[in-house]
Design goal:
- The chain is about 60% helix and about 0% strand.
- By secondary structure, it is mainly alpha-helical.
- It has a two-stranded parallel sheet.
- Helix 1 runs antiparallel to helix 27 and helix 24 packs antiparallel against helix 25.
- The longest helix has 22 residues.
- It is flat and about 95 Å long.
- The N terminus is likely disordered.
Length: about 850
């Protein structure tokens, strides 16, 4: 197989990259482990064969960009200027029938839709959508999806038969698009198709209406089965119920509408379902059991007022049985807990606990008492249980000790710890608490001795924490000394403390305790030694390649390797059209395929994500896709220079298209230290703009982003948080409402939207805690309500609360580790891009504002 020389490819690609420094490294990266083959990812057909003359054949299918930098129609669309993009197409039309003309039509359609001109988009894409045998490198399903969306938008401005005809054409286009190979966005297409089908035939004759409704019911049933976690599942269920009624199955439709009204209580869909039932002459009347279900559904929908009202009515209804009243009381307690009204939760559960002191109920009650700040009541229950014999009693005693510490009852905790067997105080948690309680009670000499013992017995990070707090105890004992008596001993304690702190600094200069140890040395006027050095990778000082250069790189890669990596050719086409989101997805597929082919996949845990396929988060279970590679593509591994050429081009594209996660993966250790490679200024213009608008340092957002997602736009946590800086959908909805913006849960994957909401949220957290970044970090993970109550529990008028102590006592292990981690990362960013480490005050301001509690 004749291929152009390595030298020729290197020359072509080097012209397309920002600087030679971007390309002076070899690949070293990780790729997601595979669970199953997904047709949207297996983008290289098993029958793929390299063309006889790859240089000529592939180039014939890849649009060339000859316009000057940043002036092509695609470039204008990509930077948010759709009107200018349309003008550019009109001014410089491509030759009819050429690939460039097809690209211009795709640009025109997207620009027209963004400007609210769907009929222009329909006209632009009609001919392309009718193509029955498109080239493999042509993203035909994207064209069909764009065309179908334009048709539906046009139908919204039409009426009667014309609207139905437009929707039928859209459904037909989606039918073809969903069956296309590959398809990265089948889920949103299937949902949109089902919605369009539900709107068909509403004003048609009875038989036509029923036939259309029957098809809509089938489509909606399949969508709800396959995507039960869709953000608008309630709306889809309502459409299905309404379609069943139109189908002529009134009894079934009534049942479906009642199910929506009950199971989706608290949503607009439930209100519409109730109205539809009233129009059918079946006004809703709910049984007591259905009211319990409605209350639980309203709680899931976050309509706490409705949930509470329904449950209160059941509790106060004299006709309610004792069993029903107890069920309603417990459900009301759960609703109060979700609403952060933990006092009401504890009150309701206390009533039930007096009647039946079950272990399950006791656990719920103790959690509400703790969160309500009613620590003494919780301790009373724990100590009562601690009096039991055997393992249950010992477990309750340890829970009582932890509860006493959470509530700031250190004397009580010391007394309870004294009840434990001596051997339990000489290992693990008991060993740590023995020292910690001395420290918190101001018995610093005893604490220093106990921390020394813990340091010898505890592993790794715990030993370092013990060493750090031993130094703190020695310094605190010195500070508490008065007069000249014991002066030599005091001086010795200070010297030993300084030695320990310097040891911690040396062990972990950019780790949490190393950074804290440096702060404590500075606090006492001691020299902590030189700050660690940390320089960003060379690429960080270079501007990203412009649109034209990026297009040329895409074209060059597609020309040489598009036969083995169709994602590169598809990406080149989409990028030329200005469809950046779609082009980025193809680039991610290409990078992952490259790493798989060259054996750079090292496995390991991978978070749930939609990097490659849209809509995986709508499924009930996650099955991450894996790449399928044909035998012919593997021949590239044996070709000299092919791997390096691909890496260079892919690296340049990840830089130009702002894909920081995969850009860092493509950098080897020779490019810089781990921190330098994995601490980029991701999405820099967006982050810096939003941080400046909220008047805080952008390094806070980068530190959060690194910790939350490693800069991946499409990560979804196990709890449902989305985006590069993880935001829960409900939190995002509240933030958007405060900003007067509409909200779409999947928009959290867009870095502009995600960073804007995150910046606003972080600014509110900073305001709540008077500019204390560490408390804002803790709140981002553990919630501002919890941080506020922890401060209230630990604050004292006689002894100022210290930051290192507060973080050490955060009761949520995940939140404590998260806070330490973000502090580390922000310090690294400050050093790398600001030239110095941050200075942390160790005194906590206990004042808390009431501006935000979610």
């Amino acid at each position: 197989m004749a291929l152009v020389s390595h030298r020729k490819r290197m020359s072509a690609l080097t012209l397309c990259t920002a600087t030679a420094a971007l390309l002076a490294c070899r690949p070293a990266a990780l790729t997601p482990a595979a669970e199953q083959v997904h047709r949207g990812i297996n983008q290289i057909p098993l029958s793929a064969r390299p063309p006889v003359t790859p240089s000529e054949t592939a180039r014939a299918e890849v649009p060339s960009t000859t316009a000057p930098a940043e002036v092509s129609a695609g470039a204008l669309l990509a930077r948010g200027e759709p009107e200018a993009a349309l003008a550019r197409v009109a001014a410089e039309p491509a030759t009819t029938g050429s690939l460039q003309a097809a690209v211009q039509r795709l640009t025109t359609a997207r620009a027209a839709r963004e400007l609210g001109r769907p009929r222009v988009a329909v006209e632009a894409l009609a001919e392309l959508a009718a193509e029955r045998r498109p080239a493999k490198s042509w993203p035909h399903e994207v064209v069909l999806h764009e065309y179908a969306q334009a048709l539906v938008e046009a139908a919204a401005t039409a009426a009667g038969a014309e609207a139905d005809e437009l929707r039928k054409q859209a459904v037909a286009a989606w039918d073809r698009a969903i069956d296309h190979e590959p398809v990265r966005n089948a889920a949103p297409m299937r949902v949109a198709r089902a919605r369009a089908m539900a709107a068909l035939g509403v004003e048609a004759s009875t038989s036509a209406r029923q036939q259309a409704a029957r098809r809509a019911v089938k489509a909606l049933t399949e969508v709800l089965r396959d995507y039960p976690e869709h953000p608008d599942a309630a709306g889809l269920e309502l459409l299905r119920a309404q379609a069943i009624v139109r189908e002529g199955k009134t009894a079934d439709g009534v049942r479906a509408l009642r199910a929506v009204a009950i199971e989706r209580a608290g949503t607009a869909a439930a209100t519409s379902a109730e109205a539809a039932l009233a129009e059918l002459g079946r006004p809703v009347r709910y049984s007591a059991a259905e009211q319990l279900d409605r209350a639980a559904a309203a709680r899931r929908s976050r309509d706490m007022a409705l949930s509470r009202q329904v449950l209160t009515d059941l509790v106060e209804d004299s006709r309610s049985s004792g069993q029903l009243r107890e069920a309603a009381l417990r459900s009301r307690a759960y609703t109060a807990s979700r609403a952060h009204d933990y006092g009401a939760c504890a009150d309701d559960l206390s009533v039930l606990y007096k009647k039946s002191a079950s272990a399950d109920l006791r656990g719920d009650l103790l959690r509400c008492l703790d969160k309500a700040g009613r620590y003494d009541e919780a301790l009373a229950i724990y100590t009562e249980q601690a009096g039991r014999k055997g393992g249950a009693g010992r477990a309750a005693l340890w829970e009582a000790i932890r509860q006493a510490v959470r509530g700031g009852r250190y004397e009580r905790a010391r007394e309870l710890l004294g009840r434990t067997p001596a051997k339990e105080r000489q290992r693990g948690e008991g060993l740590w608490l023995d020292a910690w309680l001395d420290f918190r009670l101001g018995q610093f000499d005893a604490a220093a001795t106990a921390f020394a013992a813990a340091e010898r017995k505890l592993p790794g990070d715990q030993a370092r924490a013990a060493r750090y707090f031993r130094a703190r105890a020695l310094l605190a004992g010195k500070s508490a000394a008065v007069g000249d008596e014991g002066g030599d001993a005091v001086a010795g304690d200070r010297q030993e403390a300084e030695r320990l702190l310097r040891q911690v600094v040396a062990e972990e200069p950019l780790g949490y305790y190393g950074l804290q140890a440096r702060q404590r040395l500075l606090d006492i006027g001691a020299d902590p030694g030189p700050a660690p050095t940390l320089a960003p990778v060379a690429a960080e000082s270079n501007p990203a390649p412009d649109f034209a250069a990026s297009q040329a790189t895409f074209d060059a890669l597609a020309s040489e390797y598009g036969w083995a990596f169709p994602a590169l050719a598809r990406g080149a086409t989409l990028h030329a059209a200005g469809l950046l989101d779609e082009a980025r997805r193809e680039l991610r597929v290409g990078v992952d395929a490259y790493e798989t082919l060259w054996g750079l996949d090292r496995g390991g845990w991978v978070p749930r994500h939609e990097d490659l396929v849209v809509g995986l988060s709508w499924k009930s279970t996650w099955k991450q896709p894996r790449l399928g590679l044909p035998k012919d593509a593997r021949k590239l591994v044996r070709e000299r220079g092919a791997g390096e050429t691909l890496r260079e081009g892919l690296f340049a594209l990840t830089w130009a298209l702002d894909e920081p996660y995969r850009r860092s993966r493509l950098m080897p250790s020779s490019a810089g230290s781990y921190k330098a490679r994995w601490h980029p200024r991701a999405f820099r213009s967006t982050v810096e703009r939003e941080a400046e608008a909220r008047a805080f340092d952008p390094t806070h957002l980068w530190a959060l982003m690194y910790t939350e997602s490693r800069f991946r736009r499409h990560v979804v946590s196990s709890s449902g948080a989305r985006g590069a800086i993880q935001i829960m959908p409900w939190t995002g909805q509240q933030l958007a409402a405060r900003l007067g913006e509409s909200f779409d849960v999947d928009a959290l994957f867009d870095e502009e939207h995600n960073v804007r909401l995150s910046a606003y949220y972080f600014a509110e957290l900073l305001h709540k805690f008077h500019g204390q970044a560490a408390l804002a970090y803790a709140s981002y993970n553990g919630g501002p309500f919890n941080v506020a109550r922890w401060l209230a529990a630990k604050g004292s008028a006689t002894a100022p609360l210290e930051l290192d102590v507060f973080i050490a006592e955060i009761p949520f292990r995940e939140t404590a580790n998260y806070t330490r981690r973000v502090l580390e990362v922000q310090a690294a960013y400050a050093l790398m891009y600001g030239g110095s480490l941050p200075r942390w005050s160790n005194t906590v301001d206990l004042r808390v504002e009431d501006n935000i509690d979610f």
